[in-house]
Amino acid sequence: MEPLELHPDRFFDADPTHRRIARSLYEEVRDLPIVGPHGHVDPGLLATNAPFPEPASLIIIPDHYIFRMLYSRGVRLEDLGIPRLDGRPVETNPRTIWQRFADHFYLFAGTPTGAWLNHELYHVFGVRHRLDSDSAMYIYDQIAECLASPEFLPRALFDRFNIEVLTTTDAATASLEEHRAIQASDWGGRVIPCFRPDALFRIASPDWQQELDAFGRISGLTLGSFDAFVSALEQRRAFFRSMGAVSTDHAVLEPYTHALAPEEAEALYQKALAGTATPADQRLFEAHMLMEMARMSVEDGMVMQIHPGSFRNHNQQIYRDFGPDKGADIPIRTEFTRNLYELCNAYGSEPNFTLVLFTLDESTYARELAPLAGHYPALRLGPAWWFFDSIEGMTRYRRLTTETAGIYNTAGFNDDTRAFPSIPARHDLCRRVDANYLADLVARHVIDLSDARRMIRALSYDLVRETYRLDRQAQPT
Q: What is the pLDDT of residues 75-89, one digit of tens each?
């Protein structure tokens, strides 16, 4: 078996002067606490604190970054144990799944997923051999042995990872019982929800009435009018805040914002209740609801996030057989300047409003997003996201935005992960890439080392706490 070695200077520039500065900056922040303002970890893991399942169920099956690559090379999702919606048989032997994964692990060379996985194997599970066909079962058994020990229970790993805050993403209809259980326990980890009402805004979806019914039940209100619908949303936001939430999240195809007259909003809502809303109606309704969400954020202080530009479930066969979030979401061209015009003019200068913008269209960074964030006080740029949460993607993000918006109009880093053990790997990669970017500026005498030291701490820790209005308790020195 070949040894697994992680070079201490990985991801730093090859130039020795540049590399030496990057290493020194990284060392200053490598052990800072992790603040996760946006992600998709199941809060039930930390509520029950039950042992993680065996390695395939922990690492492969929930992570679309992994199985989308294998699928692209002809590996069927059924052969990786991904459950089908119709209940038809899939592979259930975890060792067989793990072996298939190991047989194809070479596909991840040079990708962020490969970097994360190697970090996870090495630092979390103590693996010292490269994962491949020959080492597969040896490494599987090593991870399985780790998972059987108390040191690898979810809460123990949360503490070991030095996670200060972990945010989950929760539907407006979520009961938040798992969060309640965490808060009622004697464990001190801070896990908070995030309010995501997207399903309630998709009025042309065949599932909308079902979502509305569930929303009516949990809110205890009759939702026969648009005003009642808005009141229910305000009530649920207040409930989420009472459970610690500091943010809302909105995934839309395009960041179109437009305020409707009250009678227009009511008419669209009634069309939805009648089951006759069209995709064009939904586009207008979502545009108006983004305005409503911004208004509510001005009033209650919750940070608003917009994640646009993903063509969801592009592979319809995979969607029909396996459901959403199976690696078939593809970026599209996105426009921000005109689409956000109404929202920015209504709320962009409000001191109690923060809007974090993400993109899957890198062409907008220098042309639109950095100029917008460099002007409107309420706007912050979210980090390089999803397909660009990568070594080169994060570097491009900094190069395209810093000269116009600076770093202090950005929102730090979020890992956006469903794979709990990968959290420290993702934050470590970002800290290394940001240290390397700043080292380049120092080496070229654009900034001096004292500037860089302040900036790397801001990027790694301070900005995310400031942007998401987290309290400053137990701030590390």
A: 999 999 999 999 999
- In the sheet with 247-252, reading across from the earlier edge strand, the strands are 170-171, 195-196, 247-252, 303-308, 355-357, 379-381
Virtual torsion, Cα 249, 252, 258, 262, nearest 10 deg? -70
Q: What is the pTM of this model?
A: 0.96
* Coil/strand/helix, residue 406: coil
CATH assignment of 52-152, among 3.30.70.980, 1.10.2020.10, 1.20.1070.10, 3.10.20.90? 1.10.2020.10
- Name the architecture of domain 16-51+154-467: Alpha-Beta Barrel (3.20)
Give the domain ranges of the chain. Answer: 16-51+154-467, 52-152
What are the angstrom distances between the C-alpha of 387 and each of 247, 309, 425? 23, 12, 16
**Burial class of residue 146, CB neighbours in 10 A (0-12, 13-18, 19+):** middle
pLDDT digits (tens, 9 = 90+) for 319-372: 999 999 999 999 999 999 999 999 999 999 999 999 999 999 999 999 999 999
Would the CATH topology of 16-51+154-467 be identical to that of 52-152?
no
CA 76 to chain centre: 26
Break the chain down into helix, strand, coil percent, rounded to 5. 50, 10, 40
pLDDT of residue 105: 98
pLDDT at 471: 75
- The position carrying tokens 């709320």 is 347
* DSSP 8-state class, residue 83: P
In the predicted model, what is the mean pLDDT of residues 94-120? 98
